[in-house]
Amino acid sequence: MWASAATVFVLSVFHGCLGVISICVGLFASIRAEVWLAHSVSPIWSGAFFAVTAILGFASTRRKTPYMIMCFTAFCVVSMVTAIVSIQLLRLGLVNHTTDGHTFQKEDLDMCILVALGTTGLEIVVCLVSPIPSWRLAKLAKIELQAKREGPFHIEVLGQKDIVVVSRQSTPNCKKKSNAGYRLKREHIHATIL
Fold it and tell me: Which regions span the lipid bilayer (predicted)?
């Protein structure tokens, strides 16, 4: 589990670094622009999504719950969609004008747009790679959670008002630690919602 958590942590560092770079490039481009257009502020929004993805990645490696890890994975997909939209908007900054289906590129290319395109492209690659180790980490966290349930008791929530405490008591004739050696005792606790 340590290797998967370390991989997710490193990928979260990449998400964070690329997010900060993208936000800085977007701020520089929007300050320098005479008129705010979509291509000058889109790196700010995509960088914000990358930064939130990094925060969720750090939290998922720290808490290691399947829900937090899947939240990180889902936000990777959302960040990838945001990056794709950002690339489309950044491409508009390279276009001088269009006529009859022909697109003419500007003669002098803006360096901020090229850097923003590069960081957004790298972020798409990181977003494509990130779900694989996070799925592995979620699987290992789920196995670890199930191993914790093999203790002396665990709690099952059956419905909105039914909570079951399941405790294991060993039978005197069998001393093995298998399910056959334990007698399950279920106690129903009816909860009320206040």
Answer: 43-60, 67-91, 111-132
